[in-house]
Design a protein that fits this description.
Keywords: Acetylation, Carbohydrate metabolism, Isomerase, Magnesium, Metal-binding, Phosphoprotein. GO terms for molecular function: magnesium ion binding; phosphoacetylglucosamine mutase activity. By secondary structure, the chain is α/β, with parallel strands linked by helices. Helices cover 42% and strands 19% of the residues. It contains 19 helices and 19 strands. A 5-stranded mixed β-sheet has the order 1-3-2-4-5, sandwiched between helices. A 5-stranded mixed β-sheet has the order 7-6-8-9-10, sandwiched between helices. Strands 12-11-13-14 form a 4-stranded mixed β-sheet, sandwiched between helices.
């Protein structure tokens, strides 16, 4: 390795680390202002190469900061099956990112020894980037890192985050999941979509029309490329396509979800179906305005409900005894939980906040549907479930109803990107389900009515004083806090509330829901006061909302 060491020392000097800068690899990888990231990118190229040698598989590196402002950037590593990198290696990423220039080699050797990596193994790394101005030079730094350890790279250039996850999975399953090309991705998804929409009768042009807000990002670009593959089965009206606006500025899924308002630059007619992608196209939310001009958001809870009830019906029609579950977090609206459990008799499992926890929990079922309220999610089908469905497709003895249902299930599996939340794939699934069921956005919205809710945050001197259990729904410490919350909740109808420490800053997040907006606001305020008083609030005491 001496020659390589020399190469790394020299090359890493071209990507120097600013002194004193420390960053943490979180759920979203590294994310900060683009000007602080050059050394991080080079080092993630090094780490991806080691991970590839260790797993004897292709690893992905995606340069993106998702829904952050345009001047930020970031990087995420992708493991062999298209999933997020393991927690242990997240630790290595943080370690490597924060090593001062002269101890970089020592940190690298430390990882190589700990993981017992055979450095003569070949390495293969797939690299992708979003449309931010800084992404070109930053992805070049990743490529430099890989090549300085002798790894091979495939630079996909501009891709959505989920497309790169898909490519990595295709490569490591040797084509079983699909062909690892952009064209292959469009073909697999569009073919499945066209097969599903054949089951929708007499769709009018209006029903095929969808207004899409591309967040002025990579999703808009890829949607344009995909349009010809969808033929006339979908009529996309694309706004915020990146030709003039700024990435994520007054547009995109995060903006729409937080502001509860339509994005700029979109001309919505009454009742028209609209959706927004986020900056790297791994989240989606739907919405419409009613005849009174009122804005209605269809978030991740509504998406999970639509997809899981459709799948449950198909399983019944196909006579398949497979367990389907919806994985939610404490933030899921209580109405959605009640509807799924009481009306649809679907198993609901609650887990800690964060995609990683949801994905993991969904793997425990034959079919696991998970969506965060922000619109990030997908559906996972176990190997056994996929095999049962494929066997039934081939079974000559099944009747017409079973045959139709199982063919629909097969096409739905092909349409879903099981590696990660994918706005384009999720959009096509939703469009197909609405078409097959002959539903409008209003029909979908009416499945259940959200309970009014309110989210607040309380600044505290140390967020670690709050400790939670039961998937973050109950506070274990500080003492007396949960008892106080319980007695406050009892004052209101259909109410619940929970508190949890933020993952990123010294604040405690408060969630409350109740039968009216006024009650939800009032409960959220009272719980905030309890947090402020019992958990070391700083600054002014929380003021009532009204």
């Amino acid at each position: 390795m001496p020659f390589v060491e020399l190469d790394i020392s020299q090359k890493s000097k071209l990507h120097p680390k600013p002194e004193g800068l420390t960053l943490q690899y979180g759920t979203a990888g590294f994310r900060t202002h683009a000007k602080h990231l050059d050394h991080i990118m080079f080092r993630m190229g090094l780490l991806a190469t080691l991970r590839s040698k260790k797993t004897k598989s292709t690893i992905g590196v995606m340069v993106t900061a998702s829904h952050n402002p345009e001047e930020d950037n970031g990087v995420k590593l992708i493991d062999p099956m298209g999933e997020m990198v393991t927690a242990l290696w997240e630790g290595y990423a943080t370690q490597l990112a924060n090593a001062e220039q002269d101890s970089l080699l020592k940190e690298l050797k430390d990882i190589i020894e700990k993981e017992d990596i055979n450095m003569s193994e070949p390495a293969s790394v797939y690299v992708g980037k979003d449309t931010r101005p800084s992404s070109a030079s930053l992805s070049q730094a990743v490529l430099d890192g890989v090549s300085s350890l002798g790894g091979k790279t495939h630079d996909y250039g501009l891709v959505t985050t989920p497309q790169l996850h898909y490519m990595v999975c295709c490569c490591n399953t040797h084509g079983c999941y699909g062909s690892p090309t952009i064209e292959g991705y469009y073909q697999k998804l569009s073919q499945a979509f066209l097969q599903l929409t054949q089951n929708a009768l007499n769709r009018t042009d209006d029903q095929k029309r969808l207004l899409v807000d591309g967040a002025n990002g990579i999703g808009a670009l890829k949607m344009r490329e995909m349009e010809p593959f969808l033929r006339s089965e979908m009529q996309v009206v694309l706004s915020n396509d990146g030709s003039s606006g700024k990435l994520n500025h007054m547009c995109g899924a995060d903006y729409v979800k937080v502001q509860q308002n339509a994005p700029q630059g979109m001309n919505m007619g009454v009742g028209e179906r609209c959706c927004s992608f986020d900056g790297d196209a791994d989240r989606i939310v739907y919405y419409y305005t009613d005849s009174k001009g009122c804005f209605h958001l269809l978030d991740g809870d509504k998406i999970a409900t639509l997809i899981s009830t459709y799948l449950k019906e198909l399983l019944t029609q196909a006579g398949l005894n497979l367990q389907i579950a919806v994985v939610q977090t404490a933030y899921a609206n209580g109405s959605s939980t009640r509807y799924l459990e009481d009306v649809m008799k679907v198993t609901v499992c609650c887990t800690k906040t964060g995609v990683k926890h949801l994905h993991h929990a969904a793997q425990e079922y034959d079919i696991g549907v998970y969506f965060e309220a922000n619109g990030h999610g997908t559906v996972l089908f176990s190997k056994a479930a996929q095999k049962q469905i494929q066997d039934l497709v081939k079974d000559p003895n099944s009747n017409d109803e079973r045959k139709r249902a199982v063919k629909l299930l097969e096409s739905t599996i092909n349409l879903i990107n099981q590696t990660v939340g994918d706005a384009i794939s999720d959009m096509l699934v939703i469009e197909a389900v609405l078409a097959i069921r002959g539903m409008s956005a209003q029909d979908w919205d009416a499945i259940y009515t959200d309970l009014p809710n309110r989210q607040l945050k309380v600044t505290v001197s140390d967020r670690r004083v709050i400790d939670t259990t039961d998937a973050e729904r109950r506070a274990v410490s500080p003492e007396g806090l949960q008892d106080t919350i319980d007695s406050l909740v009892k004052k209101y109808k259909s109410a619940r509330s929970f508190v949890r420490p933020s993952g990123t800053e010294d604040v405690v997040r408060v969630y409350a829901e109740a039968d009216t907006q006024e009650s939800a606001d009032s409960l959220a305020h009272e719980v905030s006061l309890a947090v402020y008083r019992l958990a070391g609030g700083i600054g002014d005491e929380p003021k009532p909302l009204h």
